[in-house]
Structure formats: C-alpha cells, structure tokens
Backbone:
C-alpha cells in the first residue's frame, strides 16, 4: 500500500502526496490538516476514532517532532483502539505490516488508520 516515504512526500498506491495524510484500511487517502502542525489534538483524530478502527498508527515526522496531546491519546485508548506512535518512517513500516497481515488472514480485515506527518 505505502510504497515510499521520504522527507516531505509519501507514495501510496502509485500516487505521491506532498502533504500530511490520513490513510484508511479501505485504501482511502485524505489530506490530514491540523490547526497546529506539530501537536496532534483530539479534534485532529476524532473523525477517525468515530470509525472505530482496531489500530491507529501516528507518524510524528522524520525526526519525531510532532507530539500527540495526552487527551488525544486518552480518547483513543478509552475507545479500545490500539495506538502506535513512532517516527514516520517506522510508522509507515508498521502500518504496512498491519495491512499485510490483515490481508493474509482469512475473515475480517484489521481496521487500521494511519496518520503521517511528512516533515520535521
């Protein structure tokens, strides 16, 4: 699904994006815009949480500069959603592993949503 990440860009299903993205298990990719570039608040992830995924993966940038607000973490965890936060390069790898494992298993697909900050 995600073929490549490098500072400032990410290639997903053959298309390159030069802005932060949210990627759903359905292969939908949308621009991920936030009020504050380097802090992730409840408002930045609440629509994804409402989709009731199994896992949310957050990429905090190349150097991990972006931070996830404690209230956002709490919301995700209280909903019973597994939360993985890592630098974007590693978060992309984790997202792909979860997607690949889900596709290989028979039955219901693992609902994973990835948020990827592409710079800093």
Residues:
């Amino acid at each position: 699904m995600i073929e490549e990440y490098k500072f400032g860009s990410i290639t997903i299903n053959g298309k390159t994006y030069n802005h932060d993205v949210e990627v759903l298990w359905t292969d939908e990719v949308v621009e991920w815009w936030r009020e504050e570039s380097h802090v992730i608040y409840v408002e930045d992830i609440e629509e994804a949480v409402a989709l009731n995924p199994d896992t949310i993966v957050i990429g905090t940038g190349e150097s991990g500069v972006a931070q996830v607000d404690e209230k956002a973490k709490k919301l995700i965890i209280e909903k019973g959603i597994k939360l993985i936060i890592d630098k974007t390069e590693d978060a992309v790898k984790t997202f792909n592993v979860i997607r690949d494992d889900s596709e290989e298993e028979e039955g219901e697909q693992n609902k994973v949503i990835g948020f990827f900050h592409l710079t800093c």
In short: The chain has one domain: 2-117. The longest strand covers residues 55-60. The chain has a mean pLDDT of 94. The domain at 2-117 is CATH 3.40.1230.10 (Hypothetical Protein Mth938; Chain: A,).
